[in-house]
User: Fold this.
Amino acid sequence: MHKQSRRLLRGIGIVCALTLGATACGGSDDGGAAPKAVSESDVEAALEKGGTVTVWAWEPTLEQVAADFEKEHPGVEVNLVNAGTGNEQYKALQNAISAKKGVPDVAQVEYYAMGQYALTEGLTDLGGFGADKLAGQYSPGPWNGVKAGGEGIYGLPMDSGPMALFYNKKVFDKHGIDVPTTWDEYVDAARALRKADPKAYITNDAGDAGFTTSMLWQAGSRPYEVNGTEVKIGFGDKGAKDFTGTWQKLLDEKLVAPVTSWSDEWYKGLGDGTIATLAIGAWMPANLASGVKEAAGDWRVAPLPQWTAGADAGAENGGSALTLPELGENEALAYAFVEYANAGDGVETRVKGGAFPATTAQLDSEEFQNTEFPYFGGQRANKVFAGSAANVADDWAYLPYQVYANSIFNDTVGKAYVSGTTLADGLKAWQDASVQYGNEQGFTVEK
Assistant:
C-alpha cells in the first residue's frame, strides 16, 4: 500500500474507530516494501537458541500442541494466553498495538477480521518466510482468507467452517418430509413441516451478519471488492437477489423461529425438534454433542441445499488463522510454532482434539472421512464436510472494516426480522451505512 494512504488511514484512527474503541493505531511506514526474507536456517537457529513465544488464542486444542512443541524443542516455552474470544481479544490486541507494549508473538484472528490488520500493516506478511509454498496444503476458502483480499499472506489457516445442512432426521421421518437439495425445496419443506406441526420451524433466524454473508457467498454474490483503500460495495447482484427472495418467503410466511442462536431457547428447540435444521459450519458437531445431548441419534448431516439444482457450491462459516503481529518479538521462533501448529504435526493433534481442519491432507484422508459420529447415528459426516470444503469458491472478499460492518447489521438488515422492512431494503441500508462509514474513515468507497 502507498505510504500516503496508510498515513491517511492512521491519521483518522480507522482501525481504532471501526472495531475496537482503542485510542490510537500503529503500523509501519516502510512504503509497502516486500516482506523481509527469513530463511529456514534462521528459523532453525531460533529453535536451537530457544526462548519464549507468547500466543494469544482461544482455541482449546492448542494446549496440547503447545505442550508437544515444547517437548520437541526443550529450549522453547510457549506462553499460551486466552485474552478473550473474538472481539474481546481483538480489543486487547489493538490496545497492545496502540501502546506498542505487550503485543503477543502470535495471535489467533478470524478470517473476516484479518483485513483490518493487514491493511494497516499490523500483521507480518509471512511471504518472507516462504509461506507461499504451503498454499497447496489448504482448502480454497481458508487460504483465500489469510490473503485478506490482497497479495500478502497474513497468517496460516488453523481451522475452517465449510457449511452443511444439519437436520433432525427423526422430525423429517415423522412427517414424511424429504431432505431438501435446493433452497426452493427447503422452502417447501419449511411449509410442510409448519403444516404438520404448528410448533415446529425449519430453522431459526433472528438476523446474523455471519450467516448472511456466508449465504451470499454460496449464492454467488460478491458484494465486496477491495483494492487497498479502494472499496466497492453492492448487494444488487443475482446471488443477493436469489438469497433475499428465498429467505423473504421464509420470513413472510413465519416459517423460521425468531430465536437467537446460542440462546437457551435455541438449544431447547434443537433438542425437542421444534428447530429442525441448521445451515452452519462443520465445527458444529461438538456443540450439538455437548449442548443438545437429549437429541443424540436424531440428527444427521447433508450437503448444503443449492441455488441451482445439480450444483455443488459451498461456503465458509467461521474459521481462523494464527498470525504474527508486526510488533511481536521472536518472529522466527513464532513462525516455527505457527507452521508446526497449522502445517505440521500439530494439525493432527488438533483434529484428534475435535478441531475441524483447513488442510487437505486431513480432509482427504480415509481415516478422517471414515470417522463415525455416534451423535449422528454412526454417520460418516466428515465426507459431507470435506466435499463442502472442496467446493468453496476462493474469490470471496470481506471489507477491511468488516468487524464494524457486522456491528451495524442489526440496525440495518436486522429490521427485516422485526418490522415490515424487506431483506432487500435492509441490505441496501447496510450497504449505504457501510459506504458512508468507509468514506468517513478515509477509504474511497463506491456503490
